[in-house]
């Protein structure tokens, strides 16, 4: 099934990149339960306290997020199957093991990718399902869906939010952000006046065909926002494709 879905994704992008960006997704809003079934809530418990971030289920045993999310963790609580931070329907899985991409640079945040290994396998349901890994390079003009447990510029951060977003060129990103990004990163901006604020780290950039067919293209690494949160300021994502071989090896995905 994974191999077939990857082939479908490749064909769709080849024929029409627009078809694989946000089928059935409105401009922005609060996600309904099961709309993004791979979305995870991660609590990192360390000697420095409790750290919160987003993540994405990539198979029954592994959740992908940022390296900065998993560093120094003593243990994790990973919540799945919900679109609200507080919900009686949440499935919580525990973990202590994590891996950081070997090329991760804590100064530049190059390859800011980490993977959490869960204690026990997740049982897939209507509301819990792994995302597929991107099998093609992220196009320069990609449009997709940004998912975040953080807030919009004018909203609260108690629910899973989503928005239609687009990648922008290195040149435009430098104009907005003030720095030139490495090849492992990409600038993502909202297609509307809304902007994700705090709490986006670790959450995915998705290509959405349906609730059942979603591909993770990138991972929210850090915000370029200075001062007031606006849609002009981009979110910086770690590209998944350059790290694909490492992710597949760690998670045992063929």
Automatic annotation (TrEMBL):
GO biological process: proteolysis
SMART domains: Tryp_SPc (SM00020)
Top-level taxon: Eukaryota
Signal peptide: 1-20
GO-annotated molecular function: serine-type endopeptidase activity
InterPro entries given in the database record: CLIP_Serine_Protease, Peptidase_S1_PA, Peptidase_S1_PA_chymotrypsin, Peptidase_S1A, Trypsin_dom
Cross-referenced Pfam families: Trypsin
Record key words, sorted: Disulfide bond, Signal
Domain called Peptidase S1: residue spans: 21-252
Name of the protein in its database record: Peptidase S1 domain-containing protein
Originating organism: Zophobas morio
